[in-house]
Amino acid sequence: MNSISRTPAEITARVKALESMLIEKGLVTTEMVDRMVEIYENEVGPQLGAKVIAKAWTDSDFRTRLIDDATEACKELGISGLQGEHMVALEDTDDVHHAVVCTLCSCYPWPVLGLPPNWYKEPQYRSRMIREPRSVLAEEFDYIVPESTEIRVWDSSSEVRYWVLPQRPEGTEGWSEEQLAALVTRDSMIGVAPVEAVS
Fold first, then answer.
1. Residue 144: DSSP 8-state
2. pTM of the full predicted structure?
3. Please, which contacts does 78-82 make with residues 24 or more away whose CB atoms are closer than 8 Å?
4. Catalytic hit among 3, 20, 60, 106
5. 3-state SS, residue 152
């Protein structure tokens, strides 16, 4: 657990309280809430981004199209929508690691990553990630990027929404796209966590 984020119990309590208040005031219904949850669990979200990453790892032509125009490449897989009109996928290499922040608010590619996590919107993350990304990754996310690897931080905006194409982990040769997609997390597509093969 990093210090930027709140604990799962705190988040759950806040969500439940807000949901109850909105339902009591008649602003939403239980059915509306259930439908929104269903959308973000099944129709948009990090599982879709993971599918894109796995496709890029196994299909070099698709990877090229993804790097050239992430918005159009995602449409090939039926992934598009609000907050995903102008997406750019940043490919990690041995020499360069990418990370994403929005210094103004919380611009974020919803179709491939779902809703932004609370810590992504916190002023502490938004300011420190630009100034001292290596320290933030190590201290807040327990992610040690080698000193020999350059870290590039990209500032998402309403005009362009960035996300990361992480490196495929070693030892996954011959894995199916489904197996590979299961390794990819939202945080790895923001650039604050590695993708690791499960031993």
1. -
2. 0.80
3. 79/48, 79/51, 79/52, 79/111, 79/112, 80/111, 81/44, 81/110, 81/111, 82/110, 82/111
4. 106
5. strand
152-106-114 Cα angle (round to 5): 95
Provide the pLDDT for residue 93: 97
Please state, in angstroms and rounded to a whole number, the distance separating the CA atoms of residues 122 and 124. 5
Is residue 74 flagged as an active site residue?
no
- For the chain, the structural domain boundaries read 1-43, 45-190
pLDDT one-digit tens code per residue, 65-100: 999 999 999 999 987 765 657 899 999 999 999 999
Quote the percentage of the chain above a pLDDT of 70: 90
Which one from 74, 107, 156, 188 is the annotated catalytic residue?
107
Active-site choice (105, 135, 158, 176): 105
Chain position carrying tokens 């919803």: 110
Quick one: which of 136, 135, 82, 143 has its CA closest to 109? 82
What is the CATH class of 45-190? alpha beta
- Which entry of 20, 74, 80, 102 is annotated as an active-site residue? 102
Per-position DSSP letters for 103-136, written without gaps between them: SSS----HHHH-SPPHHHHSHHHHHHHHH-HHHH
